[in-house]
Hints:
Blueprint: H1 2-46, H2 50-65, H3 68-85, H4 89-128, H5 137-154, H6 163-185
Helix pairs in contact: 1-2, 1-4, 2-3, 2-4, 3-4, 5-6
Amino acid sequence: MKWSHSLHAIQFWLAKTDRAVVHTIDSHTNLATAVVVLSLCVWGIVTHHLSFAIAIIGVGAIAFTLGATLSLFVSVVLTILSVKTGHEFNATLTTALFEFVGYLLVARLGFKHRQEQNVLQKRGQTAMTHRDQVMPWHVSNDIRTSLAAVRFLLFPIRDEQNHHSVDEAMNELSRLEKLFEEMEKK
């Protein structure tokens, strides 16, 4: 029985750790992808593949504006062109592999960024559909005064039991309810 309890404790700890690790990976995936893409761009510039650095920006822009499918198609075409125009087979194949990975990663980044922007725009639109309701000063002052009166009537300072104060509190709450109903009609 005792080993069963410790086995459950270990399973619980592992599940908790798994959730934390997956959450950390999920929350840092875009950053890691951006760092890899930037590193590949720097690699392209350092190895005199300036066309790769320009192409990777283009693939990202295509993914952002036109979608991931077209961006992936352009990535495949650019990779095939890189292989076909290369002079040394081994170096070209390695270079083409690095380029293709870069194209895939930047396509993912561009597409994800566009999705996140769409989500933010939808949230903004739903927030804008509700009209701001501004309460006049005298209404808020009346509500504050009424709530203070209700509190005083329900919880008097003295220890007297008085049913009259409960009735007054109910009347004051009814008056507040009518006030809100009038505000909703406006």
